[in-house]
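note to self: dont lose this again. the chain is below, predicted strucutre after it. 248 aa total, dont forget to put it in the shared folder this time
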Amino acid sequence: MNLRQLSILCVLVNVLGACAATNPERATHLAWTSGTAHAGLSPSNERAPVASSVAPSNAASLRALPASAFGSSHVLLAQETFDNNTPIGEAWSIGIESAFESPDSWIGGEGGLELWQASDSESYLPATATGGKRYERRTTTELYGGAHKTFLPNSFLQPYVGAGISVSWTGKHAHTRIDLPGGTTRNTQNETFVTLGAYAHAGVAVQISEFWQVGLDVRQLIGTDVGLFGPAADIDATRIAVFIGMGN
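---
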């Protein structure tokens, strides 16, 4: 290659560089055409360059996704302690409770179902009877729901609070036996009463694994009215529960 040819080659390189700065696609076409012509290829045999595409990284894709909601579902074993307007005293209960929250909202929701039963028996002896006994069983099914807020949802200890409305179906089954001089009299009574109430509770969940939780919950139920226990009776109660379930 002589000096004249080297000068021409330098001019061509400068032209291609200027094209690349102003129009990269045109520069690529010129470079490809120049190369094929130099190699003696016909335009019909030339192949278009393959454009490369770069997929977004996994981290960028994850950042683009919206944050998912989180929640929990627990099975509770509890002791109910009723106030002085209830002839029950204490009772054991079992229930299920679920809560859900969205990172886009400062508060979530909850709902649950609970069942408790209490029974007692006592001697029943009217003045004219020689003997007798009274047995009474009380059963309540409660459905409740309201607002729920979990603090520190990604930590080992997760405190929470909740409050809402309760609907309870309370049934009373009473059986009385009276022994009289002329024979035995038996009487059975079944009643059902529906009442509304309000509740508030607080507790803490312990994240023992990726999905499993255990914890403690304390709840107060107020505002109920159950006429089948008397003119001023209710099922207002304080509940202390332990639970196990799934949550994240």
